[in-house]
Write a structure and sequence with these properties.
Strand content of chain A: 15-25%
CATH topology of the largest domain in chain A: Alkaline Phosphatase, subunit A
Shape of chain A: globular
Number of strands of chain A: 19
Number of helices of chain A: 13
CATH class of the largest domain in chain A: Alpha Beta
Largest sheet of chain A: 10 strands, mixed
Oligomer: homodimer
Radius of gyration of chain A: 21 Å
CATH superfamily of the largest domain in chain A: Alkaline Phosphatase, subunit A
Largest interface: A-B, 30 and 30 residues
Chain lengths: 462, 462
C-alpha cells in the first residue's frame, strides 16, 4: 500500500444532462445488518447467496471494506454523503424520540443521488431511509424522484405498510419481495434513460422473520457453524444463525429477481451494480449479539450493551459489477469505507465530484479499472453510542493493527495485532512491547479527529 | 416521615479540649463491599455475624441506611467529610493511575476526625484509606495521629505489607487480624483519654480469601441461598457466596476481639461503637457481581459493566451501640446516608459542627436518643462511572419510589415502586400511569443537583 491520502476526487470530464444520456445506470443495493462473514463470496459455505456471489464472480469483490460507524443511521449518512456521522450530527441510530425532535440528515450534506439527479438521472430510493422523518429530510427532497419504503428504522418483514411517493399503502407479502417488485417497476419505466436505483433492504435485521417458506426451507436442518465462545447458549445461537441465513436468502433471491429483470430488459451491459451492507454483525462472536451497540449474550442471557468496533461489526461485503470495465473475479485488497461510495459512484459514472461536497471519501473506481493508484493505508471509525448504553469510541485500523479508544472511560481501550490475532482476542493496549505502535496510531487518530473537527476533541479538552 | 430538610447541624454546647476529657470515645468500623443483606441482624440466617448482631442487640440498627455512591472512594469521602463525591472531585474509585496523577481528598474538605483531633481526641486510622496517595492527602495530614494500613484501594488478605506511621512493614498473618491487633494496641495506649479509632477493613472485598481456617470452616458445607436469576452459574455463585461469608466471618470475629479488649479495659460504657460498610454488594443479584460498577455474570460468564444503583448496591448495614443512651434493640426507620456520619458522630460526642464544614449530612443522634425530629423523606445518589465503563447516574429514593437517571444515555432510566416491587425488577420509567410521580421526583432530583452544584448539570446544558 502507498502513502495515505485524504481523498482522490474524480476529475474526469462530462457532467451535463445531455452528455448523461449515454451514461451507465446504477443499482446500489444496501442490506441491513449483514456481516461480511455471512456471504458465500467471502467464504461462507452455509449461507446461500448465489446472486450476490454471482455479482462478485462477474465483477469485483472488495476484501477490506469497512463502515466508519457500526450502526445504521451514521453509516447510511456516510454512504450517501461521504461524511462522518459527527460531521452531520448523527452519531447513533436515529431513535423515534430523536426523529420526533427533528434530527435528520441536514440539507448541507449533499447526497450522491442529488448529484445524479442534477446530472439528469432518474433516481429512486426503495426501502429504508432512517435519516430523519421531518418533511425537510424526506427522500423526495434529498435527491430521489421516487420513494417507496419507510422513513424510520424498521418495518414488519411481512405485510408492511409502506410509503409510496408520499402516500401510505398497506401491502400483502414479504418486505424484500415488495421492495424488489417496486424496484423492477421503476427500472422498467426508466429503461430508456440513465437511472439510479438505491435499494435499501431492511433484511436481515431483527426480527429475522417471518420469511417466505422458500427462504427458510434450505436452513431447516442446517447445523450452522457458530463462534466458539464460552457460555453461549449454543442452541439459541444456532437458531438465530439459521433465521439470519433465511432472511439473507430472502434478500439474495430478490436480488436475483431484480438482476433477471435488468437482463430481460437488455440493460445489464450498461448498468453498474453495487452491493454492500450498512455494517457488520455478530451472532455470538465475542459473546455479543447484533452490532456496534450489541448486547452481551455469553451465557445465553441477554445482558447490557457491549460497545465495540470489532471487525465483525465494521466489515461489510462490497461487490461491484461493472460490465465492460471490471474483469470478473477481481479481488481488491485496498481498504475502503462507506465514505468512498460518493466519489466512487460518481467516478464510475463519469461525473465530477461537486466542489461544494465536503465529502471525505476516496474514489475507488481506478482500482476497479485495474489502475495503479496511491491509496490510503488506514481507515478510521467513530461511534458515540448513547441509546441504552454510553460510549465514545474512535478507531484507526491498518492492515496489521487496530487501535480503539473508549473516551471518557478508562480501562477499555483496545489494540489488536490483526496479523497475529485476526479475531481480535488479545488486547495489547497495555503491552509495553506494543507501546511504540500504539503511540504512533494514537497520533494518527488524533490528527484524523482534528481533520474532521471531531466534537469529542473539544469536549475532552474542557 | 416529616418534610425534607437539608441538614440538622448539632448545636449543643461543649467543644473545647478541656471539656473533651469526659467525652465518650468512638470506634467507627467500616467494612469494604459488605451488603446489608449479608448481616445476621438484617435477617441473614446463613452468614455468621454474631458480634455485629450483638452491637445491634445492645444498640440501634438503622433499617434504611444508604451510601450516596456505590463504590469505594466517593463513598468513603462522603463518610469522612459529609460531602458528595462531585463536591470533592472524586466520582469513581481512585485508580492507581488517578492516584499517580495526584487525585485525592482535597484539604478544603474537612474530615470529622480532624474536628475530633482539634477537640482533643487521640485519632487513628487503621486499615484502608483510598483517598489519595500523595503526601498532601496522607491520613497524618487529614486528622489522624496514628495510621496503620494502606493508602490505595487494596492489599493482600494474608501476609500484607502495611504502612505503620509512615514506614512500610512486611507482616505475617491475616489482614483483619493484623488491623485489629493494631487497633487494640491503640485503644490500650489511649485508654485514659477520649479516642477515635476508625477501623477500615478491606474484607470482604475480592479476593475473598485466603482467610484463617476458623473463618472458612463454618461455610464449608453450606449450600447458600442465592438469587434466582436466569442463567447464573449457580455453583460459581454459591462458591462466591461461601467465600464472601468466610471473609465476613473474619471481620466479625475480629470485631469481637476488639470489643472484648475494650470491655477488658473497662471502656465499654463510655465508648460509642458504629459499624457500617462503604456500600452494598451483589453476588448474582440482578445478574451482577460486585457493586455499582458490577459486571454482568448472568450466564456464568463475566460480561461488561452493568452500572447500577440498585438497593443491593446502595444499602448498607448501620449499627450504633451508644451505652447509656440508646436502648438495646432499637430499630430506626428514618432514611440516613453516609453523609450523615459527620454531623451525627459530632452530635453523639457533643461537639458542634464547625461553621466552615460544608458538609451535607443531617445529625441522626437525636433519632438515637429517641427524640422526635423532623427528618428527610428522601436520599440522593450520584455516580460517574468512568473505570472500565461509562455512566453518569443520579438517583432519588423515597420510602416508596426510586428514580435513577442515566445521563447522556437514553433508554436506561429507571423508576421502581419499592412498595410493590422491593427487588426492583419492574422498571416503570416508561409507564404512563407513573408519569406524575416520575416528573415530581425528577424535579426534586434536579433541585438537589442544583443545591450541590452538580457539574453534570452544566455539562448537560452545553
Amino acid at each position: 500500500m502507498a502513502s495515505a491520502i485524504a481523498s482522490l476526487p474524480a476529475q474526469r470530464g462530462g457532467g451535463d444532462g445531455a452528455a448523461g444520456a449515454s451514461r451507465p445506470n446504477i443499482i446500489s443495493i444496501v442490506t441491513d445488518d449483514q456481516a461480511r462473514w455471512s456471504v458465500g463470496a467471502y467464504g461462507n459455505q452455509e449461507a446461500r447467496t448465489p446472486h450476490i456471489d454471482g455479482l462478485a464472480r462477474d465483477g469485483a469483490r472488495f476484501d477490506n471494506a469497512f463502515v466508519p460507524t457500526p450502526v445504521c443511521s451514521p453509516s447510511r449518512a456516510a454512504f450517501l454523503t461521504g461524511r462522518y456521522g459527527t460531521q452531520v450530527g448523527i452519531t447513533d441510530w436515529i431513535s423515534p424520540a430523536e426523529a420526533g425532535r427533528g434530527l435528520g440528515l441536514p440539507a448541507s450534506a449533499i447526497t450522491w443521488p442529488e448529484v445524479l439527479k442534477r446530472e439528469g438521472y432518474a433516481t429512486a430510493l426503495v426501502g429504508k431511509w432512517h435519516l430523519g422523518e421531518d418533511p425537510a429530510f424526506h427522500p423526495h427532497r434529498r435527491g430521489f424522484d421516487h420513494f417507496f419504503g419507510f422513513l424510520g428504522g424498521g418495518n414488519r418483514p411481512m405485510n408492511p405498510t409502506l410509503e409510496d411517493n408520499g402516500r401510505p399503502r398497506s401491502l400483502q407479502g414479504s418486505l424484500p419481495d415488495l421492495l424488489v417488485d417496486d424496484a423492477i417497476g421503476f427500472v422498467e419505466r426508466h429503461r430508456d434513460r440513465p437511472f439510479a436505483v438505491l435499494l435499501h433492504f431492511r433484511a436481515p435485521h431483527l426480527p429475522y422473520g417471518p420469511v417466505p417458506y422458500e427462504d427458510s426451507a434450505p436452513f431447516e436442518t442446517l447445523d450452522p457453524t457458530i463462534p466458539d465462545v464460552p457460555g453461549l447458549d449454543r442452541a439459541q445461537v444456532k437458531r438465530w444463525t439459521r433465521d439470519y441465513y433465511a432472511s439473507i436468502h430472502s434478500v439474495d433471491r430478490n436480488i436475483g429477481r431484480l438482476l433477471q429483470a435488468v437482463d430481460t430488459l437488455g440493460l445489464t451491459a450498461r448498468t453498474v451494480v453495487l452491493f454492500t451492507s450498512d455494517h457488520g454483525y455478530m451472532i455470538g462472536h465475542h459473546g455479543i449479539h447484533t452490532k456496534g451497540n450489541g448486547v452481551w449474550v455469553a451465557g445465553g442471557v441477554t445482558g447490557p450493551k457491549r460497545p465495540n468496533m470489532f471487525d465483525t461489526a465494521l466489515r461489510v461485503p462490497l461487490v461491484v459489477r461493472w460490465p465492460g470495465v471490471v474483469r470478473g473475479g477481481t479481488v481488491i485488497a485496498e481498504p475502503v469505507t462507506a465514505l468512498d461510495t460518493f466519489p466512487s459512484v460518481l467516478g464510475m459514472l463519469g461525473i465530477p465530484v461537486p466542489v461544494d461536497a465536503a465529502q471525505q471519501g476516496a474514489d475507488f473506481s481506478p482500482l476497479l479499472r485495474g489502475q495503479q493508484v496511491a491509496w490510503r493505508d488506514a481507515v478510521f471509525g467513530q461511534y458515540d453510542l448513547h441509546h441504552s448504553g454510553l460510549a465514545f469510541m474512535r478507531m484507526i485500523r491498518t492492515a496489521q493493527w487496530k487501535l480503539v479508544r473508549h473516551h471518557m472511560a478508562d480501562g477499555l481501550d483496545e489494540l489488536y495485532d490483526l496479523q497475529q490475532d485476526p479475531d481480535e482476542l488479545r488486547n495489547l493496549y497495555g503491552s509495553e512491547a506494543a507501546r511504540p505502535v500504539r503511540d504512533q496510531l494514537q497520533m494518527r487518530l488524533t490528527d484524523w479527529q482534528r481533520s474532521i473537527d471531531d466534537p469529542l476533541l473539544a469536549r475532552l479538552q474542557r
